Amino acid sequence: MNRQSYLGLMVGLGLMLGGVVRADSTKDLQAKADKAIAVAEKTIADVRAQLDEHKKMLATISTQSVEYKEMKSMVSKATAVWKETTKSLESSKKFAARISKTSSPVLAKKFALLATGSANVAQAGAKSVEMCFYFVEAVAAKNTVGIEIIRGAVLSSFDEIAKTREYYKQIKVIIAKGK
Amino acid sequence: MKKQNKKAVLVAVLLGSMGFALVNAAVDMVAANSQMADIALLSVKAKSNLAKAAKGDDSQAILEAQQRSAAVTKALKAAEAAFAKLEKATKDADKEAAVKELAAAYKAAKDALEGPLPEPVSPKGKKGNAYVPNVTDTPWKSDGARRVSDVAFGVGYAASGGSFGDRDATPE
Questions:
Q1: Interface predicted TM-score of the whole assembly (ipTM), two decimals
Q2: Handedness of CA A162, A167, A169, A170 (dihedral sign)
Q3: Which of A11, A163, B80, B99 is exposed most, by the fewest CB atoms within 10 A?
Q4: What does pTM read for this prediction?
Q5: Which distant-in-sequence residues (6+ apart) come within 8 Å of A57 by Cβ?
Q6: Residue A2 lies in a domain
Q7: Chain A residues touching B64 at Cβ < 8 A
Q8: For residue A12, is it within any domain?
Q9: Nearest to residue A109, comparing CAs of A41, A32, A29, A34?
């Protein structure tokens, strides 16, 4: 084997190995993003399945009670969170679809981070709405201890969702700047 | 392998490593933000578990969920402190230390939520919150016993002319 063909063989081998490493890495990124999306989708589906039952439960609670006013404010916040939740899920699916389509490993990593981050925002939102349902259940059952604990959990979860969203926004900004 | 070929392989490896390092360095802050978002999500999950337990009447399950949620919140605070350090850090060593702290906080949050039951978080130097119910305290064995006690108290209070326990301040 002369020098040129040996070098050619080495380069070919290098490209092949590089391709294998990249393909594996892209596959892992895709799997991670898909898993995050699947979890978010399931949480959202669970919440949707409980919606009618909790609407009925809400109708049984006296509109004159202190908890009813509280629930109204909670439901209004939860509605805003829910809109963001469904939007985030759609975004995460769009980003995930681009992971395996790109030939650049750097871009694939960025799309995966965006897909996973967006799916996590969706999951956090769905969990928070679910917690509002628990509050309705506790009020309907006149579970005073439960009401206190769930109220605290729901209110701090709203703060934490805002944090999740803020960190995700930062990820988008850094990626957009190309850092 | 000939000397020249060895050189070519060495250069290829070197270039590859440089490219890999460049890609990884570029996503440092992205990774940190991503980890912070993950920890915040773990905290939401812990709160959700607590809320789910609280709608039931299993006080042991509520206590466990409260313990886990408090430990995750503690880890989230540690992560926020580490993230603030990372944002301010200018030296590589400080950045590395902050990244390690952040990773430790993430592990602590994950363990608190999914691992064995964490130690209770004691609010050192802080007074207890009167508005947070103590789920282990069951002063009344039944609603009937509570009603009897409430009525007895009401009778005593009314008999005292509504000044049960009220005393004038001592003159000194």
A1: 0.82
A2: positive
A3: A11
A4: 0.72
A5: A136, A137, A140
A6: no
A7: none
A8: no
A9: A29
Q: String of b and e for A4-27 (b: at least 16 CB within 10 Å)?
A: eeeeeeeeeeeeeeeeeeeeeebe
Task: List pLDDT tens digits, range B109-124.
Answer: 999 999 888 877 665 5
Map out the domains of chain B as residue ranges. Answer: 3-122, 139-164
- Vertex A47 angle, CA A41 and A53, to 5°: 150
| Partner-chain residue, chosen from B16, B29, B56, that has the shortest CB–CB distance to A179 | B29
Count of the separate structural domains present in chain A: 1
| Interface test with chain A among B29, B47, B62, by most A beta carbons within 10 Å | B47
Of A123, A143, A174, the CB nearest to B30: A174
**How far is it, in rounded angstroms, from Cα A39 to Cα A43?**
6
Report the distance separating Cα A175 and Cα A141, nearest Å: 48
In angstroms, the CA B102 to CA B85 distance is 10
Q: Which of B30, B60, B69 should one mutate to test binding to chain A, selecting the residue with the greatest count of A CBs within 10 A?
A: B30
Domain that holds residue A98: 23-177
Contact between chains at A143 and B55 (C-beta distance less than 8 A): yes
Binary contact (B47, A109; C-beta < 8 A): no
Task: Give B153 to chain A, closest Cα distance, Å.
Answer: 21
pLDDT tens digits, one per residue of B136-152: 555 666 666 677 777 77
Instruction: Please give the pLDDT value at position A129.
Output: 93
Indicate if the pLDDT at residue B6 is higher than 50. yes
CATH code assigned at A126 = 1.20.120
